[in-house]
Amino acid sequence: IAGITQAPTSQILAAGRRMTLRCTQDMRHNAMYWYRQDLGLGLRLIHYSNTAGTTGKGEVPDGYSVSRANTDDFPLTLASAVPSQTSVYFCASSRKAGGPETQYFGPGTRLLVL
Amino acid sequence: GQNIDQPTEMTATEGAIVQINCTYQTSGFNGLFWYQQHAGEAPTFLSYNVLDGLEEKGRFSSFLSRSKGYSYLLLKELQMKDSASYLCAVGDSNYQLIWGAGTKLIIKP
Q1: Which of A35, A66, B57, B73 has its CA at 20 to 30 Å from residue B88's CA atom?
Q2: Across the interface, which of B33, B42, B95 has its CB nearest the CB of A99?
């Protein structure tokens, strides 16, 4: 593994179903982030984690949850998917939080909720 | 509120120069980033400015004026591979990045 990986690459999901998007990084970065990207809008932060064992809410956290059991993994769960959660989801990481750190992005997961 | 403004789309000719502007209003300022995003791909880091002035990196330069809440990305000697979206992002008082919607740059031969 080099950098950040995300799985699945794409997914079609029925409304009401539960779904976990996976994110793994091998750079030993402390901080990790989940964004969604929608046409005509900037990247919007869903949840973040400054270090293993801690998480925080971003701009659009409703309907999503995260966990950070270790440094490398930061899964995002949709408890009961709704069509408005159709989007491209990017996971990112940075060396540390609390500073102007460059964020490195995974390839994204394209999710369609019907 | 927090706001980042960029033009939605720009067109330029191969070999020419293009300037992509970004204006921002944020709660606090902890640096301004430019990222490049090719269609269907992840954003990748281009540049970072925290002090006023011009930062040059090869064919790409980025300028910042904190007093005006303004930055631009300058791309010289445009190549077809520069066709992409360019995202402006500002670090706010909590060091979270606030992102603009991006500028889609179309390069014509």
Answers
A1: A66
A2: B95
Of residues B42, B50, B101, nearest to A41 (C-beta): B101
pLDDT tens, residue by residue, B28-58:
899 999 999 999 999 999 999 999 999 999 9
| Contacts for B24 with CB less than 8 Å, ≥ 6 apart | B3, B4, B5, B32, B69, B70, B71, B88, B90, B98, B100
Whether B51 and chain A come into contact, CB under 8 Å, resolves to no
Give the closest-approach CA distance of B49 to chain A in angstroms: 10
Q: What is the pLDDT of residue A1?
A: 52
pLDDT of residue A40: 87
**How would you class B39 by CB atoms within 10 Å of its CB: exposed for 0-12, middle for 13-18, buried for 19 or more?**
exposed
Assign A71 to helix, strand or coil.
coil
**Interface membership of A41 toward B (CB under 8 Å):** yes
Is B69 touching A (CB cutoff 8 A)? no
Q: Low-confidence residues of chain B, pLDDT below 70?
A: none
Q: Do the chains contact at B42 and A44, CB–CB below 8 Å?
A: no
- Considering only CB atoms, A42 lies closest to which of B33, B50, B101, namely B101
Q: Residue B8: its pLDDT value, please?
A: 97
B52: burial class by Cβ within 10 Å (0-12, 13-18, 19+)?
exposed
What is the four-CA torsion angle of B71, B76, B82, B86, rounded to 10 degrees? 0
Residue ranges, chain A, pLDDT below 50: none
